[in-house]
């Protein structure tokens, strides 16, 4: 743990140093003029332009950045790279814009104001119509998913995008593992706002969340996972969507927690973390035999440090929720687990560890 803390602190220090340099460059008019001078067109100058674009994204992602007008011309230059005739430049620019939107949500509204959503949507439609541009089309579909949360009306403003998201969820088993996961992640992101949930609940004939959640349950059964969570007034709607996953879903998710594959474990634990924000989830999971036992079980040998920490965070969430579905004896076990922390070993486990050494 000491080594981890030292490495983590070093990483934080390095990131702060990089941010300080970016802030200084952002204030330097001469530096910005130099950046503009390097935006020469042509494939032969692509590397130079994308060095400028890296600076633009780094500046946008600063936690305290707000002066979009100062970078407007550099932002426009990055958006201009979304030209499907240049496959590498287009996909790279799309990736950079999507990453910036995900890292700095404050940028999403600005991107919407300057028309980036429509630019990406037109790219999406163009590449969909061209069979030779399948990879760009997939990138245009998945990578900028955060961009399409700029406002709830995005679901209806960009109908082909929304339809493709749902179609990919419905046909998830026709795609490779990566695209399956991205399809469900995209669905979760575009459904994350309150307005989007209202639109979806009012347009079941167009966008069937019941069908989508049923397919998600099947995907989890084949080791795929993703889900979204949301605040108060949406609880009834979320609970209804959850029930559409099917009665076996909680048991299935707990089986995934015990899976020997780390990625499956972590995915299942994250889904549990999201679900157990909601009081309505506890009766479903506490009704599964062994749920609390799994949470307090320290003998799960195939859990790595990250999984143990996440499981401890999950226990803390259950304790704090104080659900009536957790009886007094179970709550005592959970509190004891929380106090002792994620890495505490029972005496028997210590002996076994020493013997292994």
Automatic annotation (TrEMBL):
It holds the Pfam family Proteasom_PSMB. GO terms for biological process: proteasome assembly. GO terms for cellular component: cytosol. SUPFAM superfamilies: ARM repeat. InterPro entries: ARM-type_fold, PSMD5. Belongs to the proteasome subunit S5B/HSM3 family. This is 26S proteasome non-ATPase regulatory subunit 5. It comes from Globodera rostochiensis.
């Amino acid at each position: 743990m000491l080594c981890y803390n030292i490495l983590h602190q070093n990483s934080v220090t390095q990131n702060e140093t990089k941010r300080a340099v970016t802030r200084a460059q952002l204030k330097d008019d001469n530096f910005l003029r130099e950046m503009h001078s390097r935006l020469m067109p042509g494939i032969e100058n692509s590397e130079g332009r994308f060095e400028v674009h890296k600076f633009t994204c780094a500046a946008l992602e600063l936690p305290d950045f707000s002066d979009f007008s100062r970078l407007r011309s550099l932002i426009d230059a990055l958006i201009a790279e979304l030209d499907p005739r240049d496959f590498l430049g287009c996909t790279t620019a799309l990736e950079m814009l999507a990453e910036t939107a995900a890292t700095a949500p404050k940028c999403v509204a600005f991107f919407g104001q300057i028309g980036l959503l429509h630019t990406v949507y037109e790219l999406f439609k163009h590449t969909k119509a061209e069979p030779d541009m399948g990879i760009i089309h997939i990138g245009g579909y998945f990578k900028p998913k955060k961009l399409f949360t700029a406002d709830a009306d995005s679901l209806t403003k960009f109908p082909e995008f929304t339809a493709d998201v749902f179609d990919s969820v419905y046909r998830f088993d026709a795609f490779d593992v990566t695209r399956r996961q991205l399809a469900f992640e995209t669905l979760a992101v575009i459904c994350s706002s309150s307005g989007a949930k209202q639109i979806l609940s009012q347009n079941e004939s167009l966008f069937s969340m019941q069908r989508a959640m049923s397919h998600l349950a099947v995907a989890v059964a084949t080791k795929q996972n993703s889900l979204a969570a949301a605040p108060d007034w949406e609880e009834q709607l979320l609970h209804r969507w959850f029930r559409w996953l099917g009665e076996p879903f909680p048991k299935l998710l707990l089986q995934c927690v015990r899976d020997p594959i780390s990625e499956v474990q972590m995915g299942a634990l994250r889904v549990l973390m999201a679900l157990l924000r909601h009081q309505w989830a506890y009766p479903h999971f506490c009704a599964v035999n062994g749920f609390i036992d799994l949470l307090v079980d320290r003998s799960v040998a195939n859990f790595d440090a990250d999984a143990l920490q996440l499981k401890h965070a999950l226990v803390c969430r259950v304790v704090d929720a104080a659900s009536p579905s957790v009886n007094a004896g179970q709550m005592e076990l959970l509190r004891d687990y929380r106090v002792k922390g994620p890495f505490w070993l029972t005496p028997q486990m210590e002996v076994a560890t020493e013997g292994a050494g």
